[in-house]
Amino acid sequence: MTPSRNLGFISTRFKGTDGVSLEASKWATVLERMDHACFYFCGECDRPDDISYVVPEVFYKHPVIDGINRIVYAGEWGHMHKHGNAHTEVEELHQDFFSVYIRPASVTKQVQDLKDYIKDHLYQFASRFHLEALIIENALTIPINLPLGLALTEFIAETGYPVIAHHHDFFWERQRFQNNSVRDYLAAAFPPNLPSIHHVVINSIQATQLASRIGLAAMVVPNVMDYDSPPTPPDDYALSARPDLGIFP
Fold it and tell me: Which residue ranges form the domains of the chain, and what is each CATH number?
């Protein structure tokens, strides 16, 4: 019989009915039936307090994280190449076409400081719940919280924790992440290539892409729908969907 383990789920949030939260719940249900104990590290959480470790800056919509994302993916911080000796006669015509690809030093420091802060909390999370393995839900996949991804990568590299990295959507699948000033971070942590990480994707196309782009093998575990146990009671709109099929009682 397989011994019970203390397992740590990690994501930007475990709350509500988003895909990551729902799939994590399904995995946790199966693992708990196998007598494993599941604990949660995130920025927003609707799990019981006694099994949760909440760090607000881990949530991808935290104001500080949102501000970083607006800068590194949209170049909203301004023009990089305005110099004091620019020719005044063409100054008004000048446009900086490359600012979206250049990261301000202040943002680098902010990311690194937050990375160290979150990593400290990861150590505390692992210690508090005596964790033996981690299941990381999309936090090493889509770069909506750069400090979290970097903190996780360093934490795993420093500890050798056995990890299942469950990937839902990669940055190269989202148009908003194509132009950015964080190529170095994306290459290092989304996802990282570390020996203790086992990668899981939700379809064979992702497995092929992960292998061709980064050289990482992955197991395919498709998302599933548990029609017998919907996450919330159906509302009026859901009840109006094909009532002739008897989808809902």
Answer: 6-79+96-245 (3.40.50.2000)
